[in-house]
Design brief:
Elements: H1 4-19, E1 25-29, E2 32-35, H2 45-60, E3 66-68, H3 72-82, E4 89-91, H4 98-102, H5 115-123, H6 129-134, H7 137-143, H8 146-155
Parallel strand pairs: 3-4
Antiparallel strand pairs: 1-2
């Protein structure tokens, strides 16, 4: 369906609901947002995220998935996995299985990796998010651009892409 006014209205309702949990929100697209949850204790992140998900569903009727990470790229990776999980929430902040999760994400499914970079990475034996994470920084800097370097650093847990609040 291409009922854009309906999509826009539902998106606004979801974003308003998310804003109740923290005003530091970046509305990334009509159906995606980043929330700053740094004020929540790490041990409470999962429970807090379930509460967000439940509230959005209750108030808007929209099912959501939530990915929790220390960087925006790790959050997107967690969300990629969360979409396939029954719980709809994946926490990479408190997980001891980050590398296991990242090894399940193909290189072309990483946020910020386009077609050309995907071809280049695959040609060089980098097939998953985990492969990119473990590549040495010097190789990344020498062989890719600043965006490739940022993505790799973000997968390693170093925040390079700031939250841009609405």
């Amino acid at each position: 369906s291409s009922n854009y006014s309906l999509y826009g209205d539902l998106s606004r309702r979801v974003m308003r609901t998310l804003k109740r949990f923290n005003s530091e929100i970046e509305i990334y697209s009509i159906d995606e947002a980043f929330l700053d949850l740094s004020s929540i204790k790490n041990k409470d992140l999962l429970e807090h995220s379930y509460k967000i998900r439940k509230t959005v569903l209750k108030w808007t009727g929209i099912p959501t998935s939530i990915g929790i990470g220390t960087t925006k790229t790790l959050s997107k990776a967690a969300n990629y996995i969360a979409k396939k999980e029954k719980s709809g929430v994946v926490d990479l902040v408190n997980s001891k299985k980050i590398d296991e999760f990242l090894s399940k994400i193909k290189i072309n499914d990483i946020w910020g990796v386009g077609r050309q970079l995907t071809k280049f990475y695959i040609k060089n034996g980098i097939n998953t998010a985990y492969d990119l994470k473990k590549i040495h920084n010097n190789w990344i800097k020498k062989n890719t651009n600043v965006f490739g370097s940022r993505t790799a650093m973000e997968l390693k847990g170093f925040s390079c892409i700031a939250l841009e609040p609405y």
